[in-house]
Write a structure and sequence with these properties.
heterodimer; A: mainly beta; 6-stranded mixed sheet; 5-stranded antiparallel sheet; 0% helix; globular; B: mainly beta; 7-stranded mixed sheet; 4-stranded antiparallel sheet
Chain lengths: 111, 113
Amino acid sequence: QKEVEQDPGPLSVPEGAIVSLNCTYSNSAFQYFMWYRQYSRKGPELLMYTYSSGNKEDGRFTAQVDKSSKYISLFIRDSQPSDSATYLCATTQAAGNKLTFGGGTRVLVKP
Amino acid sequence: DAGVTQSPTHLIKTRGQQVTLRCSPKSGHDTVSWYQQALGQGPQFIFQYYEEEERQRGNFPDRFSGHQFPNYSSELNVNALLLGDSALYLCASSPDNRGTEAFFGQGTRLTVV
């Protein structure tokens, strides 16, 4: 069993819809949770990170962490075709430690 | 700011050969990590360098080795290449060992034939 699980998709939504992405993890020692966006043939780009449980909002993006259920989510409001990419969740036990990634979810936003 | 730069962008090698990939970290970053990303998978941690020493290592064989130079740039070396080593190799840099602010380069796509 992988430490971080993520549905590979693809997740197809119409432009303007809310995109809902989630990951589950197994190691309760994980403390920091990140979401990366990766366009085809590019490196991952950090979107957001949160520490421990709670919500964090940045523009159209909202990240949620529920440590009691080991569940992390990313919501993208008013989705745009430019949001079409693979979204990777990642986690780590402490700042500076290695990142453990999920397999990524491919998102397609159709005009 | 140039961000994290990696070279070369693409590389084709023959099974059994050796390869060296290079990474220049973002300005002000002193910690460099390397990841391997197979097609359709998430990145897998190879190792991390800080102050020219390997601090952490993932579950990769000794064929994978690295180095960090005084200017914080880094190299990833892979010996005795296998077909299964074909992947996107990503370099990430972060400041003062704060891995939560890791910035990735565009990667080097290695194809082993």
